[in-house]
Amino acid sequence: MITIYLIRHGKTSWNKENLIQGTKDIPLSPEGRKEVTELAQKINLNKIDLILSSPQKRAKETAKIIDNNKKTILYNNLLKERNFGNYEGTKTSEELINKLWDYNLNYQDENIESITVCLNRAANFLKEIKTKYPNKNILIISHGAFIKAIHYNINGYDKNTNFLSFNPQNATIYKYEL
Fold first, then answer.
1. 113 is catalytic
2. 141, 9 in Cβ contact below 8 A?
3. Which residues pair with 175 in a beta bridge?
4. What are the tens digits of pLDDT across the range 42-60?
5. What CA–CA distances, in Å, run from 160 to 97, 103, 107, 120, 152?
6. Known catalytic residue: 81?
7. Global pTM?
8. Is 34 buried (19+), middle (13-18) or exposed (0-12) by CB count in 10 A?
9. DSSP state letter for 174
10. Catalytic choice (35, 81, 88, 113)
11. Edge to edge, what strands does the sheet with 173-177 contain?
12. Choosing from 9, 35, 61, 88, which is the catalytic residue?
C-alpha cells in the first residue's frame, strides 16, 4: 500500500487577491511562508520515504520549507497546476469557476486545460507513483486544482460529480491510501 500526503502550497499574493494562478509562476507571500513553516512543524519527515513536488515556484518553495534540507525533493511536471489559459491573472468569479469545473461542458476554450485532460493527467500521475514507489509514504506538494483532480481520481467521479464539493486549502495536508 502507498500512503500519500497531499499538500497544497502556501498562500501567494494572487490567492489573497482572488486571481487565477494556473501555470503562472507566482512565489509564496510572507503569509504563505509563515503558514508553511507552521505546517512543517507538524510533519514527521521520518515517516516519509519520498517528497514529490510541482516544479512551480510556490510549490517548490513550500517543499523546501517543509523539507528543511532533510530529504531529496523530486520535481514532477505532472504535479503542475491546471492550465487556466487566458484566465490566468484575472479575478475569479462563481460563474467562471462553475464553467471550469463542469464535467459535461468540459470547457477548453481560451487555451484552458479541460477538466477531462486534468483528470487524466492526475490518473497518469497516480499510475506512475504506484509503479515507481510501491509501499512508500509519499509527501506530495501541488496545487488546488490538481489536488482536486487527484482526489476525484482516488474517490471516483462520473458526469454528475460536483467537483466544487472539495476545495483544497493552502498549507493543508490531505491523506490517502492507494
1. no
2. yes
3. 5
4. 999 999 999 999 999 999 9
5. 16, 8, 15, 17, 12
6. yes
7. 0.96
8. middle
9. E
10. 81
11. 73-75, 50-53, 137-142, 3-8, 173-177
12. 9
